[in-house]
Amino acid sequence: MPAEINDPSNELSEFEKQRLANIAERDALLKKLTLEAQSSGLLSKPSPKTAAGDGSRSKKKATPKKAKKEDEPPVPRRMSARLRGIAADSEVEKRKADEAYEAAQEAERAKRMRKSDFFTLDNMLISGQKLSGDDLLGVDVITKGVAKPYQRTFGEEDVKNTTDKDLKKLREQMSGLQLWELWEPNRIKITPERVYTMTFHPSEVKPLIFAGDKMGHLGVVDASQERPTSNVKREDEEEEDDPDPAITTLKPHTRTISSMVIQPQKPTHLYTASYDSSIREMDLEKMTSEEKYAPEDTTTEDPLSGIDMAPDDPNCLYWTTLDGAFGRYDVRTPAKESTVARWQLSEKKIGGFSLLPSHPHYFATASLDRFMRLWDLRKLSHTDPVPVGEHESRLSVSHAAFNSVGQIATSSYDDTIKLYDFGRKGIASWSPGHTLSDDDMKPDTVIRHNCQTGKWVTILRPQWQQNPQSPIQRFCIGNMNRFVDIYSASGDQLAQLGGDGITAVPAVAVFHRSKDWVAGGTASGKLCLWM
């Protein structure tokens, strides 16, 4: 016989009894509160219809009436856009947004597009004094790793311990160069933005420095100027007013000025190449700027990375591009005739190049594909260009600079400066089609040098002094420890230039062609000048 099953509903546990008592007490309290609210007018009594119809459903909580504010003005009724006769917001706003976007895009395109016009000084002047040709020149001209700020790697002890007399003399001479004493570098803002390229005017009478920046500005500083005096007293009447140096800022380009050159036979003309795809000629006597080369279509973008000219030819421009091309153009060509010669020498960016001054049919390129290549224009095919020779570095090569005796200096992201001596290998006597083996293309000297500039510092590039006053060839290059280093062609360090007031890396460093003047430009547009 099956066991008897007890019905749990017959007996209530103590817990269940307490739960039911709590429910009853809560219902009584709610009923009492409801009655009190109705008697005070805070809650309206339910209509009979609602009370009868909703008996089977749970009752909703009553919402207290909000007291009407007497002093509130009546709020106007909202009307739809359709009743007010206005088109749908989505269409209007979409059209406005499209028009604003197109206008912004067009403004940006116009800002970046090169200007092919003929510029006068008034067209280009951004700030500073207006210069005339006499003010700017007025002199006889020549017709020939990890950065550790302020930590020196070369100094007085190295000079004292030099045993070679000629080398010691040159080291003392180069190390004796001093910063321009009239103003500290942090007060000489030669360009508004980061300096990308610099050059000296070839005049030996006064230092005249040109600098191009990231936004297409051209800064000009005449370092022969005297410090102006002023009788204006400051509030404390202890120090006289101290004006900054006179600097002229022009804007011949719409984008970065990547390179510039002054042809020795034409010292009154400055040529500038830019990422806006153009080369412009600035007449330093007339103070005008004229476009000398650019793609025919103004919307075509062909950013230029370098420019050079042969010392014996003032009419031919040579340049390289960010897409690996090399070009040549004779400025005497009529505008309607297109005689631009162009070779595609690399699949990647050519960061820098230079002609061999004594034999300008030879030129060297440095590219992002890690190669330094030597080329001969006398034997250069447009369809399948073959170099005289090439050397591969571990990382990209930033620049390849020729000096007057056939030596090349390169800088590379593998933290080296490499020196190649093709003059010793007989480059002056090579016939067209001459080639070099991989062994012949190996560097003669490798110098350890921190080239890790990062995003905000301009790439370090070696620059030779083209006409040194002694048989020892020398070049300069920026140092990430906030110096400028000077080396000989054999790799011996000659000097490490620094000084007070240098608050950033003088990454762009250049020599004067013949005088022992060195200029450095920083990411903040400041000029460091040693003389």
Automatic annotation (TrEMBL):
Pfam families: WD40
Chain intervals with Basic residues compositional bias: 58-67
Keyword Membrane: no
Keywords assigned by UniProt, alphabetized: DNA damage, DNA-binding, Repeat, WD repeat
GO cellular component: chromatin; cytoplasm; nuclear periphery
GO molecular function: DNA binding
Spans annotated as Disordered: 37-82, 221-248
Gene3D superfamilies: YVTN repeat-like/Quinoprotein amine dehydrogenase
Protein name, per record: DNA damage-binding protein CMR1
